[in-house]
Amino acid sequence: MLKRYLLAPGPTPVPSEALLAMAMPIIHHRSPDFLPVLDAAKKGLQWLCQTKSDVLILCSSGTGGMVGSVNNFFSPGDKALVINAGNFGERWTKICNAYGLEVSELKLDWGSAVRPEDVEKALRKDPNIKGVFVQASETSTGVYHDIQAIASIVKKADNTILLVDAISALVAHDLRMDEWGIDVLIGGSQKGLMLPPGLAFVGISDKAWKFADTAKCPRFYFNFKKERETLAKNQTNFTSPVTLIIGLNECLKLLQKEGLDNAFARHARLAGATREAVKAIGLELFSRESHSNAVTAIKSPEGLDGQEIYKNLRVKYGITAAGGQGQARGKIFRIAHLGYADTFDIITAIAGVEMVLKSMNHPVKLGTGVAVAQELLMK
Ligand SMILES: *Cc1c(COP(=O)(O)O)cnc(C)c1O
After folding, report:
1. Is the distance from the beta carbon of residue 292 to the nearest atom of ligand 1 less than 6 Å?
2. Ligand 1 atom, smallest distance to 168 CA
3. Which mutation among 88, 93, 134 tests ligand 1's pocket best, with the greatest number of atoms within 8 A of CB?
């Protein structure tokens, strides 16, 4: 038997409280049983997103939330500024192109974080830009973009909204939607929220709702204005993913018990220990600056294939981490510390990496990284 450890940046492990709740018989989504369930989920998500605005609950993976955020707020021909620093930045461009938006990219080397002043320059150069699209945590590179600084810039432009893909950042990073002025904040269930895949969340500011009034992109399944009206009645437009929403309430309860600040601090602590441990093994981080608290991307050592490291972790030791995506495939591997994660997930991951590297004849003294992680995680 090989015991399995899920240490990927989505899907992430689901706590037993949620698993048990999701094993209950199905309730009907139009019955009175469901109304308090959705009401609790709605309020819990507002707490998590630090907003008084509506947070829609969609039945889709996270990308559905991104798609809906393009076709509900924009019209074909509208100008979009996409911060493209990795696989998910690229996805924003692809979605905007699919709906006929005119995209200009702030394209960065993978591993870099955007400089907020470059966003300011781009907006000054073209005041007709209607949407700025960014990731909070770029999961493919392990980079965190400075959302607070970017929001303070976009906030000043009356005709521009900021859309943040926080699918891997939610729960791992402090993202203050109202205080900072994030207009559209997108989350997904299978990352920091510790649920199975299948839900997307979209928080929407008053400024963004005004964009929805004039947006002409075609839409049907993701119709945010209709979804908002239905949500006010504690319903969703189409059949609600009742099981996942019941699980969501359990995970929100766990997070509320921990406290938001403690959840952010836990992720920062785990991420920091992971980074120091891999450096102690002699490995290099792929993210050059501003690191994600959700996932650490690590360069595979000279002569070793990142996909092989990832594969060996899984096959030899049952540890499902992640390889590289797109242009980073083979060059890196990634370890997540996201959601239902704590001290011994990091110890397990680092111990596994050391053992795999040694087995691949890379010089590593077993226990080096583990010791560093232990020291840091005792604090
Ligand atoms: C996982 C992820 C997505 C995509 O989510 P799906 O649930 O696979 O659609 C988008 N953006 C980021 C930053 C992610 O980490």
Report:
1. no
2. 15
3. 88
Q: Domain 17-257: which CATH class? A: alpha beta
Q: From residue 239, how far is each of 38, 98, 236, 246 by CA, in Å?
A: 12, 27, 7, 14
User: 340 CB under 6 A from ligand 1?
Assistant: no
Residue partners of 124: CB distance under 8 A and separation at least 6: none
Instruction: For the domain covering 5-10+259-377, report its CATH number.
Output: 3.90.1150.10
Confidence of residue 155 (pLDDT cuts 50, 70, 90): very high
What is the per-residue pLDDT across 180-219, written as a single tens digit (0 to 9) for each? 999 999 999 999 999 999 999 999 999 999 999 999 999 9
The finding on whether 12 has its CB within 6 A of some atom of ligand 1 is no
Under 8 Å CB-to-CB from 78, ≥6 apart: which residues?
101, 102, 130, 131
317-349 per-position pLDDT tens digit: 999 999 999 999 999 999 999 999 999 999 999
Closest residue CA from atom 12 of ligand 1: 167
In angstroms, rounded to a whole number, what is the distance separating the alpha carbons of residues 43 and 280?
A: 43
Q: Domain residues of the chain, as ranges?
A: 5-10+259-377, 17-257
Asked if residue 167 has its Cβ within 6 Å of ligand 1, the reply is yes
